[in-house]
Amino acid sequence: MIDLHTHSIYSDGALIPSELVRRAEVKGIKAIGVTDHTDASNLDFVLPRIIAVAKQLNAVNAIVMVPGVELTHVPPSHLAGLADKARSLGAHLIVVHGESIVEPVAPGTNRAALDADVDILAHPGLISEQDVAMAAAKGVMLEISGRKGHCLTNGHVARLAKAYGARLVLDSDAHAPTDLIDEEMARAIVMGAGLTMDDFHQMQENARSLVP
Predict the structure, then answer these.
(1) How far apart are CA 88 and CA 108, in angstroms?
(2) N or C, which terminus of the chain has less Cβ within 10 Å?
(3) What residue ranges do the domains of the chain occupy?
(4) What digits encode the pLDDT tens for the residues 77-116?
């Protein structure tokens, strides 16, 4: 089980990175992305600290911590530049907070993310067919979410991704210990989105391709 979208106290998560990673390991997770919410105000503060702790933990743990960011509520016109800055600071994983139906994300965020150098478009809501086709063409992965609220459009995302050949990943978007999911729950979320166990295994392979 690989989970590439979680949050620590460096944004709105409940746990320090070390505890988050340890609790994930106990859940059976083999690799975890710590992708705290960032924008222009805190990117250069948060990311170096996530990278530093990832180096320390990866030297001694079996679980792999993948350092990254989730660019969140960034104006669409600023996303590409901020993604480039995150890469220059050493982010291995760049997630964009997509147009979830349960938050007032700026319209055009999904498309701007697909135009930028990012890895995952998280909980993209009622994403358009055109944007799903663009994600498939550019290799940006679309997220099936385990997060309350964001998961409400999983079926829509799954259906269009299958139709257009876009790659999918499954993430918890964990903010607290109880948000972390094990493989049994992950499989249930995949089935609930109208996908199959073959899809689940492919999603894990997709996620594995983003783990250093």
Answers:
(1) 24
(2) C
(3) 2-208
(4) 999 999 999 999 999 999 999 999 999 999 999 999 999 9
Q: List phi, psi (to 5°) of 13.
A: -85, 165
Distance CA 106, CA 60 (A): 41
Q: What is the dihedral of CA 38, 23, 57, 92, to 10 degrees?
A: -40
User: Which residue's structure tokens are 């979320």?
Assistant: 189
Residue 143 DSSP code: E
Query: What's the distance, CA 69 to chain centroid?
Result: 9
Helix axes 154-164, 183-192, angle to 10 degrees: 80
pTM (whole model) above 0.85: yes
**Whether domain 2-208 has CATH 3.20.20.140:** yes
Strand partners, 70: 37, 95
By CB atoms closer than 10 A (0-12, 13-18, 19+), residue 108 is: middle
Q: Which residues of 19-51 are buried (b: 16+ CB within 10 A; e: fewer)?
A: ebbebbbebebbbbbbbbbbbeeebeebbeebb
